[in-house]
């Protein structure tokens, strides 16, 4: 693949931006698209392009090469390229402009995990805290009543269930049980989740991204098992959080139930301008 990266291509559009073409050629020369990988080719390509956007090699308003050009350089099919670009578009990283092409956009801003679709892991890290995630449960199992209802699972459906304690600067802050629809994450139980954000795993291994989330908050007293893991007395006041995150097709992707200890970190919510 590397040797072919600079070959002359059939039907290459004359208006390809040279800088973005150079980036695609670098991806080809590095051989990051591997057919031997368990990760689908389109997910590999999407992640490679997202990385280039993240480090500003592909800058906002830069036009990407045509699908056919990318396909020939990377020796993949056009449907692979189209699926990768569609996923990037769903994430808001590129925009398709009719009769003009596909352009890099500004990444979507992310704020607090309590008021947006970022994870607690990512949000605390972004704020400069040392974050640790300790798993106490990781299994594929039959869904409970809530999981079956939220994911609309058939009687023989499964879920991946992950229980984690998140620590912020060594202090337990959140007791979380995360559920994922089993049919969307095949063989996830074999993935190493140690120290990794679940959203990052969904994106990297399955090309799935949470686009929005709905969350509900109630006051709660710590059950005995939760209290032990959060290192607080049983009955300690906590905030109970229930959340459903949705993918690019507005289908439920992640369901989690959590207990949050606001003694460790206060909840911060920003609002826009008020109007009468």
UniProtKB/TrEMBL annotation:
It comes from the Bacteria. SUPFAM superfamilies: Chorismate lyase-like, Winged helix' DNA-binding domain. CDD domains: WHTH_GntR (cd07377). InterPro entries: Bact_HTH_transcr_reg (IPR050679), Chorismate_lyase_/UTRA_dom_sf (IPR028978), Tscrpt_reg_HTH_GntR (IPR000524), UTRA (IPR011663), WH-like_DNA-bd_sf (IPR036388), WH_DNA-bd_sf (IPR036390). GO terms for biological process: negative regulation of DNA-templated transcription. Keywords: DNA-binding, Transcription, Transcription regulation. Residues 39-107 form the HTH gntR-type domain. GO terms for molecular function: DNA binding; DNA-binding transcription factor activity. Pfam families: GntR, UTRA. This is GntR family transcriptional regulator. It comes from Mesobaculum littorinae.
């Amino acid at each position: 693949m590397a040797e072919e990266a600079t070959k002359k291509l059939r039907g290459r559009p004359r208006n390809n931006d040279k800088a973005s073409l150079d980036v695609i050629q670098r991806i080809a020369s590095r051989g990051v698209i591997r057919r031997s990988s368990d990760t689908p080719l389109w997910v590999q390509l999407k992640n490679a392009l997202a990385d280039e956007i993240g480090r500003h090699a592909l800058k906002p308003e830069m036009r990407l090469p045509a699908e056919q050009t990318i396909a020939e350089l990377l020796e993949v099919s056009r449907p692979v390229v189209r699926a990768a670009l569609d996923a990037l578009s769903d994430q808001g990283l590129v925009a398709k402009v009719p009769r003009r092409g596909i352009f890099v956009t500004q990444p979507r801003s992310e704020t607090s995990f309590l008021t947006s679709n970022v994870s607690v892991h990512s949000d605390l890290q972004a704020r400069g805290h040392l974050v640790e995630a300790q798993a106490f449960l990781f299994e594929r199992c039959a869904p409970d009543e809530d999981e079956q209802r939220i994911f609309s699972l058939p009687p023989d459906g499964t879920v991946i269930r992950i229980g984690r304690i998140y620590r912020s600067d060594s202090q337990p802050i959140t007791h979380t049980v995360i559920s994922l629809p089993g049919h969307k994450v095949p063989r996830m139980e074999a993935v190493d989740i140690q120290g990794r954000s679940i959203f990052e795993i969904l994106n990297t291994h399955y090309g799935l991204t949470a686009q929005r989330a709905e969350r509900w908050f109630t006051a709660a007293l710590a059950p005995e098992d939760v209290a032990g893991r959060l290192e607080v007395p049983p009955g300690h006041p906590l905030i109970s959080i229930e959340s459903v995150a949705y993918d690019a097709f507005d289908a439920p992707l992640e369901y989690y139930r959590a207990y949050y200890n606001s003694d460790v970190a206060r909840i911060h919510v920003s609002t826009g301008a008020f109007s009468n």
